[in-house]
Amino acid sequence: MRGRTRDRVRVRMSKWDGTPHWAFDAVVLGDDEHGTWLGTPAGTRFARPGAAYEQAAARVHLVGDAWCLPSFCSPGAPMAVYVDVSTPPDLDGGLLEAIDLDLDVVRGWTGRTWVDDEDEFAAHRVSQGYPPAVVDAALTSSEQVLAAVRAGLPPYDGTARSWLARVQAG
Question: I need a labelling partner for 84 at 20 to 30 A (CA). Which of 68, 118, 138, 170 fits?
């Protein structure tokens, strides 16, 4: 999974049925005990069919082996932490792929933390036929991540600040 620092990575998320979801370009910042850190500076374009935006503030994304893809945002972003519950991300060379499983754990700037898109998960688990093992993994991941974010456990303990500083420094 480890990439060379400053290598470019295309992040491509999809839905369970293969529908393209968010895609964006990132750069490898480095590795630590939590995984591989990717950076996206302010102005990075995020796009999916029917929607696109340029992110307002820098973010770092943590690629580990868990059923999630955490993002940590710098001030100016609408949230401080945004964790996509997904299949374990697969980083192979210049491409990262994962299947977005709808649930998101979000921490706002005031510290409020919640699970978002539970209604979308409930609908898609039926309409897209999520296997029971995937449903269980997604629900377990969202519960574990929610608890870790609320408790400020690593990597949700400020670890991302030094990685964000690298993105902001260019």
Answer: 170
